[in-house]
């Protein structure tokens, strides 16, 4: 019987059916659920890695040792994993190695709109692009077969609308894959210059062969209809094209790198006008133009955001302009009531600090009324940036500056810059927002959680001992002890050494302690609590009221009320 | 079945994903083609959330285009106003009358809009009270699903078995009461 699955669930199913043994990933929207669904199959050993580079290295090790392996990440995670990936393209694999990379056109949950198809081209790694959940399952299986057949890692490229859309899937059964023989083969796996030069030739030969084979791969297909307009497309965009231009002829690319050159040439020759409809970069369009074929597309679609059937109809089918969302008061996401980050950033605001940040729920503190983040670049960036700012503006600047990052992003890529700051004689202050979980992506365990992906007990990383070993002065404090936390922050920013302040309090969504909501008796309407930006506090003409359905009783507002007008909640 | 497009909107945390999951499950159970598009991640922290449900045999795109929705199911008034432009001529708006203040209104930098939906075919109801009567304020989504069921031609027991398949067993009784409250009106 068919089951409705999001694309990510179907990929997990496809991995399971392919006989995958090892899955190693770092969470990132919109890729996270693939690994979570994988973890439901006991035949696959699944783990959250500290970052995408480690994830790919682990999967690569498993594949080289003979087991099929999968790593999943969002598009920017591919940057972190790029180092092992680019060279894995030279060595090739032994058992199949697949990288599921999820792009995020329109940046629903991302900091940029980079296009994995571009990275794949510079890394010489083939790309498969499914167009619905059924194809997610089938293409995952194909990806493992191609990986072994052509001895290369393979990208499975998704976009948000594929990863997070449900459509019916006919699932199959698992086919166990016995371990492939492991053979010592330095010429293939030790990439010193002499060996790597030979392997680079192998990459070139493989790509040439795959380009020829692509013409006859069933995942690339031509659907001839009216010959006036021929559309080349892939992924979920294919669905938009079919809906918007039902009469147009379509070349649907399943293998979107390397491209099936002869198939494209013959398709182009049969249609009056050839267009490419693609989101993000003009990747297909440039490749096709480089074949000497007349083609257009990006002149209409642009580089930004998502397409839709309505947009494709408007741009290529003479449809009416797509109605726009009315301009109404926005509803940006906000830190949850009781979120420990609120107190942390409130203390920083009190001290008027410059805050270098990174990626997590706490990035929301850049928005009013807290408005306390000066930068968000990538995970772990804050620590090195604070050191760089000190190099530029001196230690006086460092006394009013903090680097902020989460427990998960510190482990991801904040450790090495901390070593660098100590080594370089800096006096920076790093605040680790230690809520014991990877929060933004929906609560994935990390090495500081003390639990593994299955929720079973696991060795817990001791952040204090780690930072002390690096040579930093470490202070630990619950930010909801606002007075003490502010004092510690003040002392450590002033100090002339590298400090780490661990703001430790579990994510409120995981805090099972039941607390009475707070209530206000005689509000003076001074507005002090409103500076917290808590969604449970509502300003009225008669004073602030507390929404009891939202308040979790964290008591932070009690601490900032100068008139002691707030009662209840945490003592 | 004729192609049916449904937009579900509300505020992160109101159970929007669960609602679209139930609808998807039900459509599949009724032998229909179906696609559902969700948004996870950043937008779930109290921000606006929208899911698209498309039912019918030749559905390609997982997204409902503006002006093509048969139903907009809204869990909150401001979100109803924001999503109204998805409705086709003659489409139906079903909305909870509850107002949840967004952060810019809470901090006083913006006003909660003082207007009503323009849609002629609108069912506006206090789903929060009905949900509370059913046993939980969190069942607003299922109350609204009950209202939607008045307009769709599927039998009540199919709706209820879809709810049973998708909600946590502990909450089933409450959710069934909430569904029936919405269905009855």
What's the arrangement of strands in the largest beta sheet of chain B?
Answer: 2-3-1-4-5-6
Kindly state the number of beta strands of chain B: 6
Q: What is the C-level CATH assignment of chain B?
A: Alpha Beta
Structural domain tally of chain B = 1
Proportion of residues in β-strands of chain A: 15-25%
Can you characterise this structure?
The complex is a heterodimer of chains A (571) and B (185). Chain A has four domains: 3-214, Rossmann fold; 221-316, Rossmann fold; 340-510, 3-Layer(aba) Sandwich (Rossmann fold), CATH 3.40.50.970; 518-568, Alpha-Beta Plaits. The longest helix of chain A has 22 residues, at 193-214. In chain A, helix 1 (7-17) packs across helix 2 (32-38), helix 1 packs across helix 6 (133-150) and helix 4 (75-91) packs parallel to helix 5 (116-123). In chain A, the strands form six sheets. In chain A, strands 3-2-4-5-7-6-12 form a seven-stranded mixed sheet, sandwiched between helices. Chain A is 37% helix and 19% strand. Chain A is globular. Chain A is an alpha/beta fold and 571 residues long. Chain B has 185 residues and is of the alpha/beta class. Chain B has one domain: Pyruvate-ferredoxin Oxidoreductase, domain 3. Helices cover 37% and strands 22% of the residues of chain B. In chain B, strands 2-3-1-4-5-6 form a six-stranded mixed sheet, with helices on both faces. In chain B, helix 4 packs across helix 7. The two termini of chain B are 25 Å apart. The relative contact order of chain B is 0.17. The model of chain B has no long low-confidence stretch (mean pLDDT 94). The chains are: A alpha/beta (571), B alpha/beta (185).
């Amino acid at each position: 019987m068919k089951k409705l699955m999001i694309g990510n669930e179907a990929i997990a199913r496809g991995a399971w059916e392919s006989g995958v043994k090892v899955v190693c990933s770092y969470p990132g929207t919109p890729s996270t659920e693939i690994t979570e669904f994988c973890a439901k199959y006991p035949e696959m050993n699944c783990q959250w890695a500290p970052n995408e580079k480690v994830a790919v290295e682990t999967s690569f090790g498993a594949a080289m040792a003979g087991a099929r392996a999968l790593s999943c990440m969002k598009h920017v995670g591919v940057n972190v994993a790029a180092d092992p990936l680019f060279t894995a393209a030279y060595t090739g694999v032994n058992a199949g190695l697949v990288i599921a990379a999820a792009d995020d056109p329109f940046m629903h949950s991302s900091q940029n709109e980079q296009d994995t198809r571009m990275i794949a081209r510079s890394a010489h790694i083939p790309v498969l692009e499914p167009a619905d959940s059924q194809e997610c399952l089938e293409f995952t299986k194909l990806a493992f077969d191609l990986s072994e057949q052509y001895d290369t890692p393979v990208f499975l490229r998704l976009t948000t609308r594929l990863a997070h859309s449900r459509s019916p899937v006919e699932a199959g059964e698992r086919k166990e894959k016995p371990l492939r023989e492991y053979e010592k083969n330095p010429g293939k796996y030790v990439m010193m210059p002499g060996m790597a030069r030979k392997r680079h030739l192998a990459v070139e030969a493989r790509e040439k062969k795959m380009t020829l084979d692509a013409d006859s791969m069933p995942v690339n297909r031509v659907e001839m209809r009216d010959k006036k307009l021929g559309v080349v497309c892939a992924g979920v965009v294919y669905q938009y094209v079919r809906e918007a231009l039902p009469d147009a002829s379509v070349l649907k690319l399943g293998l979107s790198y390397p491209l099936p050159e002869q198939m494209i040439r013959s398709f182009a020759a049969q249609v009056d006008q050839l267009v490419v409809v693609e989101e993000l970069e003009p990747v297909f369009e440039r490749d096709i133009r480089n074949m000497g074929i007349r083609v257009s597309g990006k002149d209409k679609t642009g580089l930004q955001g998502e397409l839709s059937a309505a947009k494709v109809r408007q741009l290529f089918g003479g449809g009416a302009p797509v109605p726009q969302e009315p301009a109404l008061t926005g509803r940006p996401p906000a830190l949850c009531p009781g979120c420990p980050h609120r107190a942390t950033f409130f203390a920083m605001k009190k001290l008027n600090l410059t805050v270098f940040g990174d990626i997590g729920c706490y990035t929301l503190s850049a928005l009013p009324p807290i408005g306390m983040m000066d930068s968000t670049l990538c995970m772990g960036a804050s620590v090195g940036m604070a050191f760089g700012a000190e190099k530029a503006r001196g230690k006086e600047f460092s006394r009013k500056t903090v680097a902020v990052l989460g427990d998960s992003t510190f482990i991801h890529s904040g450790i090495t810059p901390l070593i660098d700051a100590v080594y370089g004689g800096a006096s920076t202050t790093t605040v680790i927002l230690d809520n014991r979980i990877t929060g933004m992506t929906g609560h994935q365990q990390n090495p500081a959680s003390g639990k593994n992906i299955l929720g079973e007990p696991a060795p817990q990383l001791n952040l204090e001992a780690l930072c002390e070993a690096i040579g930093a002065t470490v202070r630990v404090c619950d930010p909801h002890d606002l007075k003490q936390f502010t004092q510690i922050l003040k002392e450590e920013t002033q100090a002339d050494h590298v400090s780490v302040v661990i703001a430790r309090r579990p994510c409120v969504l995981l805090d099972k302690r039941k607390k009475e909501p707070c209530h206000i008796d005689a509000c003076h309407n001074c507005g002090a609590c409103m500076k917290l930006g808590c969604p449970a506090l509502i300003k009225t003409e008669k004073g602030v009221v507390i929404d009891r359905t939202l308040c979790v009783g964290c008591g932070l507002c009690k601490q900032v009320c100068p008139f002691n007008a707030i009662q209840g909640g945490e003592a | 079945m004729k192609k049916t497009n449904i937009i579900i909107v509300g505020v992160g945390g109101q159970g929007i994903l669960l609602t679209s999951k139930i609808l998807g499950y039900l459509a599949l159970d009724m032998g229909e083609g179906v696609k559902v598009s969700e948004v996870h991640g950043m937008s779930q922290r109290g921000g606006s959330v929208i899911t698209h449900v498309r039912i019918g045999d030749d559905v390609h795109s997982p997204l409902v285009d503006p002006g093509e929705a048969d139903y907009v199911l809204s869990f909150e008034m401001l979100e109803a106003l924001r999503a109204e432009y998805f409705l086709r001529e003659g489409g139906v708006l079903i909305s909870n009358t509850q107002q949840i203040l967004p952060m810019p209104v809470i901090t006083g930098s913006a006003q909660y809009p003082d207007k009503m939906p323009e849609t002629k075919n609108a069912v506006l109801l206090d789903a929060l009270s009905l949900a509370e009567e059913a046993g939980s304020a969190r069942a607003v989504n299922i109350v609204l699903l009950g209202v939607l069921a008045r307009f769709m031609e599927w039998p009540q027991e199919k709706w209820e078995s879809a709810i049973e398949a998708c909600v946590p067993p502990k909450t089933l009784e409450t959710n069934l009461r909430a569904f029936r409250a919405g269905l009855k009106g």
